[in-house]
What does this fold into?
Amino acid sequence: MASCEFLNSKGTFRLKSPENNSYMYFPLANEAGVMSSITPTLNGDCKMGQNTFLLAPVSSEELHNNKSSRNFWVYIDGVGAWSATGISAAQQAEIFSQDKEETQLEAGIMWHKATRTSRKYGLKSEIISFIPATDDKVELMKITITNIGNEPKKITPTAAIPLYCRSADNIRDHRHVTSLLHRIKTTEYGIIVNPTLTFDERGHKKNTVFYGVLAAKGNGEKPVSFCPLVEDFIGEGGSFENPKTIVLNEEFKIKSNDKLEGYEAIGAIRFEDEVIEAAESKTYIVAIGFGDCKSDFDSIVNNDLKETAFDNLMKETEKYWDTKINISYETKDKQFDNWMYWVNFQPMLRRIYGCSFLPHHDYGKGGRGWRDLWQDCLALLAMDPSNVRGMLLDNFGGVRFDGTNATIIGTKQGEFIADRNNITRVWMDHGAWPFLTTKLYIEQTGDIEFLLEKKSYFKDIQEGRGTEKDLLWNEKQGNQMLTDEEEEYKGTILEHILIQHLTAFYDVGEHNNLKLHGADWNDGLDMADEKGESVAFSALYSGNISNIAELLKYLRDKKNIKNVELAEELLVLLSGNDELYDKVEVKRRVLKEYCSKCRHNIRGNVIGMDCNELISNIEGKAKWLKNHIQKNEWICNKEGYSWYNGYYDNNARRVEGDGEHGTRMMLTGQVFTIMSSTATEEQVKSIVKAADKYLYDKSIGGYRLNTNFNEVKTDLGRMFGFAYGHKENGAVFSHMAIMYANALYQRGFVEEGFKVIDTLYNHCNNFDVSRIYPGVPEYINQKGRGMYHYLTGSASWLILTVLSEMFGVKGEMGDLTFEPKLLEKQFNEENKAAIDMIFAERKLRIEYVNDNRKEYGNYSINEIYINGKKYKFNGKTTISRATIKELEKVSKHIIKIILN
It folds into this structure.
């Protein structure tokens, strides 16, 4: 099995002949908003948003057919032209021959180094690319050219970066016309483009963005000339892979302080001819970036265009991201530990890129979705919990009073925007995720009072859970729910959570399960809006409602809270009993009555509800829902396998079981019935057997999302239009596979949970099949290739599962508790398994010592030491938060846990 070779414990890896693998790309970005993708041959793009692409936007297929890539050319006197990136017609023609150049990729967090050795030309190139972890809006490259021959060579070096400088919309919408907007100027160090206007969905507006390419020799020496226009650079009949000016070594005639207008631009920058001696190297720095004015590029020249500055910035950037990733693992499998280091990084990438702006993620225009806000916080709670409280509080401002939520999320934290197109978007799972994240936050911090914080509600034209429009609403009144007195209403976070769950409880289909609406977590189930039901997420909601009751008990018993404030409208949802819950039409009437009471405004009256009464009410709902699923949705097929049905289609028919074209089974329904404890222990055993029979495929990474239904099921969702084994239709979808592992671990099925993660990891780590850099992709296709890499919520769930379930390091109302579920084979040669993390603002190293090599289930925690001093614990394997807070804040503290 081939894999990327890790060079240290921080995920730095090496890969030979990387360009022999198609569709691979690497992320380079910073928190100032620069987002790039880069391939082994330096293809890819660079942008700051949908309307500000510096390099032409690329989807996955453009990675191999787009000639418009970053390039650096060397013309060797008497020999010819050579591309330091390998992107020349001659070099591309030799890629499958025995004369192919030797290449190697080395990369770490947010930096990328491509090395190329040509015996034919007697040259070696090393190109390091990164984006500084500063406020600078720039991507930097350091190109080092080395003469590996025995004789001196006279060379003419040229940087050549094609410039796009406009909205992605213009790639086929007024591509030529928008080039007429270009105003191009040469400076002493490069080429700057400042289009006059922008043509995109915002209309024709004055442009305010400057784009540019700057370059200098490693010692800061200026270039000598420029060729800013594409058509002049490539020449008639030429191309970016075979440019006439390079191949014939033609003189660049444009000098600094020249102006050109109305053409496609390129940052073609020529350096002075020089002789490079045998074994000698020459270094060049290239910067591509954005500015608000020309002086921003002067700053780049002053701060970045020297080798010493480049090297210092890169060291600072490496240190910055290493500090951000403050969680790491040590097990017997060092490959796994390094692979997980990249998984740790993925939620940070999604905070920057959203769900767009990498080559496979070409379906959006930026930003994150509702689920992303909450699931990305799961990882932050493990790695950087300091700002999570404010983030959670702001995020709750997206909840509507009917239990749905805003779906257009702004760039600022807590910013939610009304859909100007008035498109109804209701995903029935959306109400479940905020509580899962909030519960984890409370467990980690003990901040149960967070439930009593107050926050406004989102308001727009949508109402009645997507079934009606509030024609009295307009954008002038803003996006907050108002009272009859036209004052902004704020309710507790507990109230927000209750509204999300109680409205869902009453929003049912014909079989009394929660309605599917536009989809649940699986966006491909989007064609059953009328009669579709999600049993899978009905189970998750039932588990959530039970856990809400448990938090209320803690508020009552530990914080002496006897009553909680709720808007009086909620009394409608807090009525009922099992007899009412059994009746679909009665439940629908209850929901309709509630929605009518909050149609435009609410009264603004608040009641104090007795905690005991509230706990009893919601516990009754959770119990009813769980019993309903157990009674009606457990199925057995003709082969004798049993599992839970997860869905009903738009004809109100049960989806899973024996189908006309074969067995129908979906993973999602099994995950949430296990996770919510709807499934009994015996049922979990049956589910595992069925999943292993119908869904498990080791050759593609483990557990498929579903079996092959062998039909285009237009009464359930678009996923069935996809080829089987791709994306939502039967691929190994990492997110749900990892949640399956999490659910199994929670229920004590450790060997089975480990199998899920281990199979997925080993597949991704097998580069010859997965064809991806380290990390977890969104899914694995039918051929075994990892797809939609980096930007996936599965990374957060994997971090959470490895940390809190596999290593068993958890918060318990602010205290730190240990419940390891490590298998014997995971302990290293020193009988240890360790994790470095932050808890209660303290850096901790937690080491489990299993000297007797006992298997999970046979060991227990015998002793705990903090910095070598024995810690007394009373049966419960917990260290109090107060004890941890007493530790010094700066140094790392070792907690050694002896298993016996």
Remarks:
- The domain at 18-324 is CATH 2.70.98.40 (Beta-galactosidase; Chain A, domain 5).
- Residues 535-558 form the longest helix (24 residues).
- The two ends are 36 Å apart (CA to CA).
